[in-house]
Amino acid sequence: MCGIVGYIGDKKAYPVLIKGLSRLEYRGYDSAGIALMSNEEDLRVYKRQGKVQDLVDFVDGMDIEGNVGIGHTRWATHGLPNDVNAHPHFSGDGDIVLVHNGIIENYDIIKKELIKRGHVFKSETDTEVLVHLIEDIKNNSTVSLEEAVRIALNEVHGAYAIVALSKHEPNKIIAAKKSSPLVIGMGEDEYYLASDATPIVEYTKNVVYLEDEQIAIIDRNNGLRIISISNKEVSPYVQELEMQLEELEKGGYDHFMLKEIYEQPRAIHDSFRGRLNAQEGWISLGGIRDFEERIAEANRIIIIACGTSWHAGLVGEYYIEDLARIPVEVEYASEFRYRNPIIRPNDVVIAISQSGETADTLAALKMAKEKGATLLGIVNVVGSTISRVTDAGSYTHAGPEIGVASTKAFTTQVTLMAMLAMMLAKKRKTVTEERFNTLLNEMEALPSKIEKLLESNDYIRGIAEIYKDAQNALYLGRGSSFPIALEGALKLKEISYIHAEGYPAAEMKHGPIALIDENMPVFVIATKGENYEKVVSNIQEVKARKGKLVAIVTQGDVTVKNIADHYIEIPDTDEMIVPILATIPWQLISYHIAVMRECNVDQPRNLAKSVTVE
Ligand code: F6R
User: Fold this and answer.
1) Is 358 in the pocket of ligand 1 (CB under 6 A)?
2) Probe ligand 1: pick from 27, 255, 309, 331, max atoms within 8 Å of CB?
3) Does residue 485 carry a pLDDT above 90?
4) Would you say 488 and 607 are in contact if contact means Cβ atoms under 8 Å apart?
5) Which of 43, 364, 474, 572 can pair with 333 through a Cys bridge, CB separation 3.0 to 4.6 Å?
6) Is there a cis peptide before residue 88, judged by omega within 30 degrees of 0?
7) 609 is annotated as an active-site residue
8) Are 327 and 321 in contact (CB under 8 A)?
9) Would you list the DSSP string of 91-116?
């Protein structure tokens, strides 16, 4: 949450900062601000409630010169989203400005102490407390900005990625991080800073990922130096980015979400490329090869995740238990970490995360590590914190996901779960050769089946049109399609603000059935398979109460087509692959309804893509 950027070099800082903030807007978009510096004593801050475009409109005609600058796009934690609480924040004497992503947990105690010492605060933010603390240390101990930052960071608890400037040290940027991400781009005599690599990739591919409790001192004359907050020198480890610039553009689509829905055939193909081969009959996850034995012999697998990634974990539970016969528990990371869970030495903990930065997932992982578990990561963002703290893992290779509502990240996570289950089943000999080969073939056929399904987009838009004014919606599914009901409901509520609930189809009669009337759309997955007849009975119950029924059916189905008000056919496939295919119509329904309701599809209200606060 919150995106931060910085630049120091020969370019004009303003365009770099604004473009960078636009790329990071998915992290928070309730206010935005920048600080620019041309030379000593010349430090200007512009900030505004609203989106980055509101900031651009605000600074029109103002002095935007300067080769050094920092910027911030906010997702409010402490204090309302308004001009005053927007970052950057000044120190009391106006010498230092700071942008911050994270939460300073002991800000209240520090604030009270600083108030006693005469500090006056303008905003309600924890960030302003930190910049005043740095000022207090800098002035009272007459130390440099970096030393004041270092001392201050030893006094704060919580999470931070910060970038600071002082008007008395105009050739320098100081940055630091703990639990919130920060990347430094290394150009020719110029440096970029950002919460992730997306604002950096068009200028340089050489980056340094700052580690927790490290401080970067970037001096225009002396380059980059990194120290720890305990004042030890650290050699910067420069890595090369694999990301391509085109992946960050809308590429002709109206929204990133639609582009990302359409990217799923490619994304899923990338997620299994080089990892399975139907002709030769093998599957192999390189990133976890050294841990295969360990996972196959685990007493239990615990999957931890949040939101959509948690839904992918639920599908994984069905897959692994059914195919590999290893007990699986799926936990909300935020609950798991606070309930003193029992973790035995033989347990394997798998974190699923698109961003690889989700604070709760990260904290749960750290707790599991302390209890001695083996940690694996299924992560999309290469080089992200979760990918670095886990013992091993596999990237989903979905490519950058910019739309706040997760789409291709989810289907690639489920693809990875399927591959993991298949790999374990093969190793544990709990799957027949025939089923294993069928699954391999179905996995390979998945991208072209999704392409086929996407051809129904206009037809699905027509269904969306009918239900766009609904107040509530119910999503139903059974077995491994139940998590897809949850995911369908989450997609609808988060981008169109229609209240929606996902339920196991058979559970409907234990409560939610009371909600059903002629105004209630019920979205159900009723594909051919073991539970087909049971689902047919469940949907009869909906129709008997005049509910409106939209059903996902297997191509060629007759029975459900005759009962449902609307149906969407998906290509025939193995039951295990259905959850991936069935996700796509629900993504498209939500997308079109949100567009028709004139909602901000890519940046829904109150949300942010990377949730780096607990
Ligand atoms: C919903 C969505 C969120 C994320 C959740 C976890 O569309 O995107 O529910 O799934 O915030 O994020 P990651 O996967 O980055 O850990």
Assistant:
1) yes
2) 309
3) yes
4) no
5) 364
6) yes
7) yes
8) yes
9) -TTSSEEEEEEEEETTHHHHHHHHHH
- Judged against a pLDDT cut of 80, whether residue 324 lies above it is answered with yes
Residue 354, ligand 1, Cβ within 6 A:
yes
Q: Pairing between strand 282-283 and 276-277?
A: antiparallel
Give the pLDDT band (50/70/90) at residue 316: very high
In angstroms, the CA 265 to CA 411 distance is 10
**Mean of all residue pLDDT scores within the chain:** 94
Q: Which amino acid is at 86?
A: A
* Nearest residue to 42 via CA among 67, 5, 23, 17: 67
Give me the residue label for tokens 């391509």. Answer: 244
For 537-579, the DSSP string reads: HHHHHHHHTT-EEEEEEETT--HHHHH-SEEEEE----TTTHH
Measured torsion, CA atoms of residues 273, 276, 279, 282, in degrees rounded to the nearest 10: 160
Q: Give 580-606 pLDDT, tens digit per residue.
A: 999 999 999 999 999 999 999 998 888
Query: What CA–CA distance (Å, rounded) separates 573 from 581?
Result: 9
Q: State whether the Cα torsion 394-400-404-405 is positive or negative.
A: negative
pLDDT grade for 612, boundaries at 50, 70 and 90: confident
Query: Is residue 233 a contact partner of residue 227, using CB atoms and an 8 Å limit?
Result: yes
CA distance 476 to 483: 9
Secondary structure element (H or E) that encloses residue 589, with its range: helix 578-596
**Segment (H or E) for 8:** strand 3-8
Span from the CA of 36 to the centroid of ligand 1 (angstroms): 33
Half-sphere exposure of 257 (CA within 13 A, CB side): 28
E-strand ranges in 367-422 read: 374-379, 392-395
Q: Does 260 sit in the ligand 1 pocket, CB within 6 Å?
A: no
The fraction of the chain above a pLDDT of 90, given in percent, is 85
Nearest 5°: the CA angle 16, 48, 43 is 60
335 near 291, Cβ under 8 Å?
A: no
Interval 160-216: pLDDT, tens: 999 999 999 999 999 999 988 899 999 999 999 999 999 999 999 999 999 999 999
Domains, the chain, ordered by start: 3-247 (3.60.20.10), 251-453 (3.40.50.10490), 456-603 (3.40.50.10490)
- In the prediction, which pLDDT does 27 show? 85
Distance CA 531, CA 180 (A): 44
Residue with tokens 């029975």: 559
107, 188, 298, 570 from 487: Cα distances, Å: 37, 45, 28, 17
d(CA 600, CA 608): 13
Q: Tell me what pLDDT residue 249 has.
A: 82
Percent of the chain clearing pLDDT 70 (strictly above): 100
